[in-house]
Batch of 2 targets.
Target 1
Amino acid sequence: MASSYVNNSIFLLFCLCLNFSKVVFGGDFNIDFNIIFGDKRANIQNGGNSMILEMDKYSGSGIGSKNEYLFGRFDMQIKLVPGNSAGTVTAYYLSSQGPHHDEIDLEFLGNLSGDPYVLSTNLYANGNGGHEMQYYLWFDPTQDFHTYSIDWNPQRIIILVDNIPIRVMHNRQNIGVAFPTRQPMRLYTTLWNGDSWATRWGKVKIDWSKAPFIASFRNFNANACVPSSSNNCYGFNGGKNKGLNGETKMKLKEIHEKWNIYDYCRDFRRYARGLPYECCKTNNRKNIQDVDFE
Ligand SMILES: *[C@@H]1O[C@H](CO)[C@@H](O)[C@H](O)[C@H]1NC(C)=O
């Protein structure tokens, strides 16, 4: 009896691994993450349901996922450092390791009380960054929790705020533009001192008399693929991210017009010798079926 039970459960396990390439995590900070710096300043609470990051003048703090993921949708509710948060950076990002790393970034740049936070997004592909787009938010992100999501699949990356897409990055490998499709990434959230550049280009420094600075996180959820010998992840589409419909394109355009404050594709000073290839719409149109708003 005992041995047939064991055989059955091994058989079942084997089938599950082969048939389902996705792995769903209900989100327990204790199970899914390690503290990567700041020791007790990263404080997991409520039995793994929520977490706070603190920064004092000795250190910030951060956590990183135990798993590496290749594609998936990652949702996190975040309440940012309140009051005078100038110079602080709260980051929520995916990153691979090594010299030609990939990274998908959301960085929240703090500000003086009453002045707006900036959400700075960026992409590194094969070690190349420089794809920043920055936004003001349409709410005070320090008053309540809001959901910030990265939805990454082989075709495109969508960044969402409260389920509203604010930025889409398409895979343009077919026209020679690097895009993250090969390197698995870990998910990180960190709180650190960015006062050399973050707030008004480094003019406003951290007021350490206001320390400790605290950002709060809860309801982490990943619907993501963990690569292994039986999972290659390339067929994965856990984020229901299957092309953009007309409504989504309209919303993106609206958000861009109202809330975007920096777009690398319009930075003619930085790219005086010519904008990156993917910034030119005619280059994009050459080889792509679904031309979306950029
Ligand atoms: C901070 O507030 C100033 C003044 O409103 C604004 O120009 C700036 O974009 C805000 N954010 C950052 C991160 O500097």
Note: The chain has one domain: 23-283.
Target 2
Amino acid sequence: MGASYPPLPAFLVALLLAFFCFCDFPQVANAGITRHYKFDIVSINVTRLCRTKSMVTVNGQFPGPPVVAREGDHLLVKVVNHVSSNVTIHWHGVRQLRNGWADGPAYITQCPIQTNNTYVYNFTITGQRGTLLWHAHFQWLRATVYGPLIILPQLIASYPFPKPYKEVTIILGEWYNTDPEAIINQALQTGGAPNVSNAYTINGLPGPLYNCSAKDTYRLRVKPGKTYLLRVINAALDDDLFFTIANHSLTVVEADATYVKPFETELLLISPGQTTNVLLKTKPIAPNAKFFILARPYSTSQGAIDNTTVAGILEYKTSSNAFKSKRLPVIRPPLPPINATSVAANYSSRFRRLVNAQFPANVPQKVDKKFYFTVGLGTSPCAKNQTCQGPNGTNFAASVNNNSFVLPSRAILQSYYFKKSNGVYTTNFPRFPPKPFNYTGTPPNITFVTKGSKVAVIPFNASVEIVLQDTSILGFERHPIHLHGYNFYVVGQGFGNFDPKNDPKNYNLVDPVELNTIGVPSGGWAAIRFFADNPGVWLMHCHFDVHLSWGLTMAWIVRDGKLPHQKLLPPPSDLPKC
Ligand SMILES: *[C@@H]1O[C@H](CO)[C@@H](O)[C@H](O)[C@H]1NC(C)=O
Ligand SMILES: *[C@@H]1O[C@H](CO)[C@@H](O)[C@H](O)[C@H]1NC(C)=O
Ligand SMILES: *[C@@H]1O[C@H](CO)[C@@H](O)[C@H](O)[C@H]1NC(C)=O
Ligand SMILES: *[C@@H]1O[C@H](CO)[C@@H](O)[C@H](O)[C@H]1NC(C)=O
Ligand SMILES: *[C@@H]1O[C@H](CO)[C@@H](O)[C@H](O)[C@H]1NC(C)=O
Ligand SMILES: *[C@@H]1O[C@H](CO)[C@@H](O)[C@H](O)[C@H]1NC(C)=O
Ligand SMILES: *[C@@H]1O[C@H](CO)[C@@H](O)[C@H](O)[C@H]1NC(C)=O
Ligand SMILES: *[C@@H]1O[C@H](CO)[C@@H](O)[C@H](O)[C@H]1NC(C)=O
Ligand SMILES: *[C@@H]1O[C@H](CO)[C@@H](O)[C@H](O)[C@H]1NC(C)=O
Ligand SMILES: *[C@@H]1O[C@H](CO)[C@@H](O)[C@H](O)[C@H]1NC(C)=O
Ligand SMILES: *[C@@H]1O[C@H](CO)[C@@H](O)[C@H](O)[C@H]1NC(C)=O
Ligand SMILES: *[C@@H]1O[C@H](CO)[C@@H](O)[C@H](O)[C@H]1NC(C)=O
Ligand SMILES: [Cu+2]
């Protein structure tokens, strides 16, 4: 036992608590300050499912360390690469106003940080608060290099919902028994689909429903009669996940770091790259049971998927300050079928942005630039001297408007800034599908994609509408499309082909949900709108890494405005070179 101190006077305790109200994050009392983080990229050995493997991590932690800041803070994250792989870090959902240099996607906004090199991500969090995530943005490194990014509000009292007793982060991921880089490299070489993961994880732990895994179970220990804020993040590589807790309903209060009109649900659906904050009200009296926390995919893919279930356990602390015996029964909640598209659609339709004087919405009512993009799979021909394991002896590919994006060998943002686009990118990204067909009917018999590093250019502050249309080529899927540098409003969505005459009549231009990643309905479409007020080069892509690797991506160039504060900032001096 340590030395004993005289107890603090009660008023002092109250005063301290008032100052450090976010009891989970006492280190972030002030706002508007500079916070320093150091990310050492190192390999460690990690054991799950009775297999030990070497994995790339930040600071030897899996999942990676939480980055916690307040709205208005400056972040300086020094990344030092000690591994043989290249690396970059993306601050997923951070707007990076005029500052694409800190956004992170390799060969889009920066060259990768090579072995033994260092780069400082230098950015300010402006006008945003909520749960986001950070992750590697180089090949499939984000399978192990990811963590929470938590932006607390500036003022203690400013949550638009009752102050939670505690805050808890739940980050969902995917575990591969072998090296994820080897898996995608093998797939790109053979043309076939990559091996699927062996487990899902909650905070890095697969839980008791897998063999040899019971000791690696996440436990959420709660007190009765309290409200907990769960910050749920999907950092999985390739899977939308249903999430549920037995016998407890959840109140959704935030999505992708914007507040939503609260609604109650038994079940969440969360795409890779999405975040959902929910309130969990615990039962008034500790029950004589424990409760499974489960996550399992939603998918309509025709290919193989990892259809396993990760489990954590919610357990109650009793008044005697101990957790009850392990023999308590564990209650298992139901989960919808893996292909439950109607459940997915009902859930998505419930989101409305919270709109009030403090959080006004700025939904474009008129549109300057319209785009119609198909998103889906395709193929590319097999080289003559090869055998390919994709559909009908081809290579799997994926595309936006039938163009499969090719990563250049130099970064687009630098090339743009220094006016050296030659050989890096072209500005001819198609605004509409080059060959229209019935996108949700019988697919065309030729499924070959075009290839190129094509970008679309938009003027500063244009109001933009993009309709994202899923295609039937090689099967419908719910593609989670993520836009860098922006949030957007989801003004409409539906099944079948988008109808430009009738569908806009049903748009919600009042309180549509504001996201950075939209799950485009499987066999349907989604319409998004935003003002192009952030100059730079911004990637837009499917957040399934397999589709990203196959080319389901494109980039925007948003031009500078006329005024000085409407221009892209100059690059930092330590920007990596390639
Ligand atoms: C990981 O395990 C391998 C093989 O068992 C061993 O050679 C290596 O030193 C270990 N690495 C670390 C960082 O512990
Ligand atoms: C990185 O640094 C280590 C230690 O100085 C050195 O052994 C290694 O060769 C370097 N690797 C590269 C690729 O520069
Ligand atoms: C971060 O960026 C700001 C402004 O863009 C600059 O003034 C500052 O020197 C930078 N800090 C570091 C450590 O690079
Ligand atoms: C993928 O799975 C196949 C079949 O199980 C196996 O032979 C192959 O080694 C796996 N590839 C990697 C990179 O793990
Ligand atoms: C667990 O192990 C048993 C026995 O070895 C095996 O039959 C079963 O398929 C395994 N289950 C999983 C999910 O791997
Ligand atoms: C998961 O997929 C395997 C292999 O395709 C199949 O045998 C099994 O029935 C599926 N399990 C569930 C729960 O859908
Ligand atoms: C979901 O899958 C089951 C089993 O494969 C199938 O019977 C059912 O028709 C599918 N449902 C939908 C909505 O596609
Ligand atoms: C296949 O042919 C191409 C040229 O057409 C050549 O570059 C490549 O090395 C060949 N690959 C194999 C596996 O022979
Ligand atoms: C594969 O070829 C068969 C027969 O030529 C055709 O019916 C089928 O549509 C093709 N599938 C794909 C995915 O191209
Ligand atoms: C597209 O195909 C679907 C499914 O076959 C069909 O229901 C729909 O009427 C077709 N749409 C058009 C415009 O042809
Ligand atoms: C592909 O479709 C076109 C037009 O729909 C048709 O003319 C052509 O014969 C078809 N090719 C094959 C291989 O089925
Ligand atoms: C790392 O990045 C450099 C610069 O783009 C590139 O030349 C090199 O091939 C990359 N290394 C790996 C292993 O991808
Ligand atoms: Cu996709």
Note: Residues 127 and 142 are 27 Å apart (CA to CA).
